[in-house]
Design goal:
By secondary structure, the protein is α+β, with helices and mostly antiparallel strands. Strands 1, 2, 3, 4, 5, 6 and 7 form a seven-stranded antiparallel β-sheet that branches. It starts with a helix and ends with a helix. 18% of the residues are buried. InterPro entries: ATPase_P-typ_cation-transptr_N (IPR004014), ATPase_P-typ_TM_dom_sf (IPR023298), ATPase_P-typ_transduc_dom_A_sf (IPR008250), ATPase_P-type_domA (IPR059000), Ca_ATPase_N_dom (IPR024750). It comes from Triticum urartu.
Amino acid sequence: MEQYLLDNFDLPAKNPSEEAQRRWRSAVGSLVVKNRRRRFRHVPDLDQRHQDHAKRRSVQEKIRVALYVQQAAITFIGGAKKNEYQLTDYIIKAGFSINPEELASITSKHDLKALKMHGGVDGISKKVRTTFDRGVCATDLDTRQSIYGVNRYAEKPSRSFWMFVWDALQDTTLIILMVCALLSVVVGLASEGWPKGMYDGLGIILSILLVVMVTAASDYKQSLQFKELDNEKKNIFIHVTRDGGRQKISIFDLVVGDIVHLSIGDQVPADGLFIHGYSLLIDESSLSGESEPVYTSQDKPFILAGTKVQDGSAKMIVTAVGMRTEWGRLMSTLSEGGEDETPLQVKLNGVATIIGKIGLRSLLLLLLFPKGCRWLLL
């Protein structure tokens, strides 16, 4: 029966264009529909979709401009004064032959001249003590992480519980209640004396403290849950070659020298160099804002973290991880700005402000004209 229904009654979706939907909604909404919000609650909000698309394009443009400005500044500084990368005794004793900053700059700057000077991809693999068929040894992972860094990005410190308490105290309604509690205490002490005059004001103060603590605890717990969810989302598993075998590891355990296997849909976990592959197309729109994919080959072997594999497959050698990658530098630059409120938070804050203003005006009228307000209530 189900197969019969699928064969005879399964109709494809029309998929009208956004312009056609907008014209239909405008024509029907102006003549037939009275309650537009309820009538169109199950259809996409075209205006909101357009705003989200414009916001996304704006962020991509900022990232692209920041990338170009950074590359221009680095090129200018490098042309004015050539940096001399030196090997420390610890790096030499560990058996490595290239400075981590120099290794990261080769990929981030797309420096073919420096890559050829070090012997190409084969020379880089020898200097970081790895081979294409066996990968790195599991016994020297700690040494590689201490020299070349770990594959984690710097995050903002979590907000403490008392910061959420302070935010809860900024509510307009609670501020009005605090003023009312103070006035109640003053009037009560003047009229009834101590301690009966404190009862009403003290009750309001205890209610305010209870609301503030419950709100702060709820927001603090929610922030911890969001942080755990974000860490779980970032914990991507990738395939690498280690000790001569293919393994599946977490992106956080990746080290410089690892041989990473890339396929369609994978997110590039770190900066690296192309070893070999087939028709590898890299989507760099999340990093540079350019919609055209970049063809990567042995002539253009540079692969940046944060990009995605759009087509093909390949193997790459990791040259930079964590904050030494181009993606890590850009994220640290963009994270310096403040956090914007969501549209829902803006609307809720506006409603709370309006309610607070109405309550404050009603309180003033009650204090100035008590008899008139009582007559209106009756």
